[in-house]
């Protein structure tokens, strides 16, 4: 979001203030959120404790807001036994994280009534 704001034409950015903080430390971001009136994006598993203790409230989720990554290797090269084990561990961790995210979303995600209250997205179709 911050990169898009920076890339926006100057006249647009002058009209819309966009206060932001960039931080690479999760603990620091959590302290900022806990001590201010701000919002941020987290993976649900990274704030499971805060959700469980009701310190944070989940405002919503979007299906496009997810992480995508890949595991790469040199083409035509077999994986070593250590690399195969590492890949197995990564896939196991991904499965566990997915289950945890689903559990947290089911428990703390927006209620069905709240989802229905959101305005429907409209699609414009041109016909000629």
Order of helices and strands: HHHHHH
Radius of gyration: 20 Å
Mean pLDDT: 79
**Helix percentage:** 40-55%
Total count of strands: 0
Shape annotation: extended
User: How far apart lie the N and C ends?
Assistant: 36 Å
Describe the largest sheet.
none
Q: Helix/strand-derived class?
A: mainly alpha
Number of helices: 6
Query: In the residues, how many domains can be counted?
Result: 1
Percent of residues in beta strands? under 5%
**Unreliable stretches:** 113-128
Write the layout of secondary structure elements.
Elements: H1 2-7, H2 10-15, H3 26-34, H4 48-52, H5 81-108, H6 112-117
If you had to describe this structure to a student in words, what would you say it looks like?
With 128 residues, the protein is mostly helical. It has helices at 2-7, 10-15, 26-34, 48-52, 81-108, 112-117. The model is unreliable at 113-128 (pLDDT under 50).
Keywords, separated by commas or semicolons:
128 residues, mainly alpha
Structure in a nutshell:
The protein has helices at 2-7, 10-15, 26-34, 48-52, 81-108, 112-117.
